[in-house]
Amino acid sequence: MPLTRDGIAYRVACDLPEGSYVNLGIGIPTLVSGYVPKDREVFFHSENGILGMGPLAKPGHEDPDLINAGKQYVTLLPGASVFDHPTSFSMIRGGHVTHAVLGALEVAANGDLANWRTPGEKVPGVGGAMDLAFGVHNVLVTMTHITNKGKPKIVNKCSLPLTAPRCVKHIYTDMAVIDVTPEGLVLREFAPGLSAAAVQSHTEAPLRVAPGCKEMNVPAAFLAAQPTAKVG
Amino acid sequence: MVDKTLATCQEAVAGVFDGATILLGGFGDPGLPGQILEALRLQGAKNLTVVHNGSGGGTHSLGGLIHDGRVRKLIASFPSHPGNASFQERYLKGEIELELVPQGTLAERIRAAGAGLGGFFTPTGAGTELAAGKETRVIDGREQVFEKALHADFAFVRAYRGDRLGNLNYRMAMRNFNVPMATAAKFVVAEVDELVPVGSIGPEDVHTQGIFVDRVVEVVRHPEYLKITTEGRQPCR
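^ Those are the sequences you sent over. The predicted structure of the assembly is below.
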């Protein structure tokens, strides 16, 4: 059974190491902060000038001067700091933010990422997506494995405008965890009830199966009956 | 005695001329000089080039200025937020020009202008359509794009506290684009919640130094802005 959106976020959170500095994109990535194990210290960065961001503010406790990059009211954790945009993007471009978790429309076998411009979109907007994709060493992508029309999103070559070439290191979908390596894509885990062959059948680019490739270990609450429909 | 204070936002925007380039601070509501924007809307200057992260909300703030057809060109990173109907409408009709810039590049182009630099090379955007036509150079084995400094005639910023010398202090996530923008325009005006006596902002807490700021105007926060904390609801703008 494929993972829910929260399931994908949970699986990513399991892989964020202690002491990592993490920027979360909009959509499924936003959910990641809720699933970091309690005993692990991970610092969340928001490109509008926050390091050490906590959970969303509870209704009635919003601070009007404190939002995240998605314009949601947030909180700060002890040890947090606030700063201006040049400082924030020094953290990103300078490689100090260690992990970026981003949504994607397409990822190519060589790690090319397309996530900033959708087909048929009337007004373009890039925000901080390119700075993150170019600047952060560990770009982790979360997305549904296929589009809501059933087309693979992991492709031989991106058809949409690129956010950055060769930047993606790991792909987390509702069906699989895949590493991008110089030798191509390597399937590390598949969702419960699926198989390496089933994942390949939904993936345009060729997958090599890692030695020790296994079924994902996620709580049953994170399993969906159907593939996750919503794109994000 | 140096006194950079103004009594009203009308005075703050009085000098804005047709065709001016304006740096507009803020990211979302925090740090957005909303009252100066309202005054600018009444002031009437047109054919403006506005530099801002987004394209404003509905038909108020920057959205209002665009709605009124006063903005000829927008230089922004994320003008595509679904709530930005005024911009979308004019953009789709070809009535407003858009220069789309990655957010970090936008901030750094403004910073470069304020720091007296001609521009800089950045890896961001290399090999993508946003680097089309731009000079590139391979530095330390990596392709980088030349981005030019972004100067302006005016900068309108918002801070939490300010003094008559132009020193500014920001709360929480208000600093965003305001800090670099305050350094990069010929005439800089700050809208502040509170005008305080000189010395009230401790030297370590001055985030924008008075040397960068021409005028300071104290405003009462928009009522919708305050409701958030008292009633726990989202602001309208």
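Chain B has seven helices and twelve strands. Chain B touches chain A through 56 residues (CB under 8 Å).

Shout if you want it in another format.
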